[in-house]
Write a sequence for this structure.
């Protein structure tokens, strides 16, 4: 008989898997940070710094003792982390690099034709020259080899050498050695990622098994599509075939949705019942999540589990935005209770809070607003500003 998992139990397990149930003040060492990222799977990188860059905020929301310099050391000195693509640019444990080699081979087969349609015939004319320059001279920024007279216009108007650098990064010839003012520094992959992480070679079957198994372990329960989408390494059909081949290790469960309706059939490992018993409750404090937090990356799953509809409105014309340009979800315990619009003004040294929206049925009680103020103070200090300024009408 298929087991029904209550919505509260499902949220508790998922939050624990996402590193959001551990005590947020426990001292986080450099090795502890590496383990946290391994447990989550990846941390998305994004250039927007409305309050703090996404990767820093994702880690801070899980542990308030997080130190940026530990992440930099793990990435740029120890080589224990590397930056590459999941569904978007992300920071990953270098222990996963051997599996990403399969992604590189898959990418090589499709990128040339896709980018030729995008940039036109002959777009790859600078590839050999760019590769040889990096081999000879070492790490390089795209701006260091930008052709005279080229006017940059974002990813849609890369100059030929930047296109080459990105192609070699996407296909595993180059790696990101660091960043300068958030611009990528490219170098040969063997000079960035330690040799111990290149081996052993894994077969296609081992790669698919790892991609599915590791995704399901980090989700707790999932459909074929959710398993495939977690790393964005496989197709849903490959995940479906993996489930069929490993039915003896899996159990089918029904996940109760937050707002009622038909339970969602999903797959879990057979020890899920033990995890249900062991998973702790999430801390009751309020936490501000990055819009790119991996907990909410799958917007449909977020809506089913938490009854919370969330979209980033960066590309929505301002008059059509329901909330704002870059609005942050609020997590209280195991509930997504609302969203907040704010911006760090570093020249003035303040965190401007523009507007708060609480979800229907969530009351702005004195205790709740005090918890929110405490979190805003913590976030302001982390972002390097001295004061939280509540703007007129911030509570609506």
């Amino acid at each position: 008989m298929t087991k029904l998992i209550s919505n509260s139990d499902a949220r508790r397990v998922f939050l624990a898997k996402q590193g959001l149930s551990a005590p947020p003040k426990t001292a986080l060492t450099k090795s502890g940070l590496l383990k946290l990222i391994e447990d989550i799977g990846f941390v998305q990188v994004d250039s927007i710094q409305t309050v703090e860059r996404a990767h820093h905020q994702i880690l801070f929301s899980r542990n308030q003792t997080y130190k940026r310099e530990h992440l930099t050391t793990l990435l740029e000195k120890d080589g224990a982390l590397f930056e590459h693509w999941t569904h978007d640019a992300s920071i990953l444990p270098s222990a996963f690099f051997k599996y990403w080699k399969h992604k590189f081979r898959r990418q090589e087969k499709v990128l040339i034709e896709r980018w030729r349609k995008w940039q036109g015939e002959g777009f790859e004319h600078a590839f050999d020259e760019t590769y040889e320059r990096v081999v000879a001279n070492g790490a390089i920024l795209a701006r260091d080899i930008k052709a005279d007279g080229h006017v940059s216009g974002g990813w849609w108007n890369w100059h030929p050498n930047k296109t080459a650098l990105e192609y070699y990064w996407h296909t595993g010839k180059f790696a990101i050695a660091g960043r300068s003012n958030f611009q990528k520094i490219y170098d040969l992959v063997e000079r960035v990622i330690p040799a111990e992480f290149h081996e052993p070679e894994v077969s296609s079957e081992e790669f698919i098994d790892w991609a599915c198994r590791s995704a399901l372990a980090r989700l707790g329960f999932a459909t074929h599509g959710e398993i495939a989408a977690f790393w964005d390494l496989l197709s849903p059909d490959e995940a479906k075939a993996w489930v069929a081949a490993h039915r003896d290790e899996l159990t089918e469960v029904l996940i109760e949705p937050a707002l009622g309706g038909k339970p969602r059939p999903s797959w879990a490992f057979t020890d899920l019942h033990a995890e249900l018993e062991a998973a702790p409750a999430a801390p009751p404090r309020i936490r501000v999540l990055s819009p790119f937090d991996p907990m909410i990356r799958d917007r449909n799953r977020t809506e089913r589990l938490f009854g919370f509809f969330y979209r980033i409105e960066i590309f929505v014309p301002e008059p059509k935005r329901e909330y704002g340009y870059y609005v942050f979800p609020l997590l209280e315990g195991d509930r997504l209770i609302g969203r907040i619009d704010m911006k760090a003004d570093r020249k003035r040294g303040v965190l401007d809070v523009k507007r708060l929206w609480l979800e229907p049925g969530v009351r702005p009680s004195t205790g709740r607003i005090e918890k929110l103020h405490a979190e805003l103070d913590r976030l302001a200090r982390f972002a390097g500003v001295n004061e939280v300024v509540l703007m007129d009408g911030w509570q609506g």
Observations:
- DSSP finds 14 helices and 14 strands in the chain.
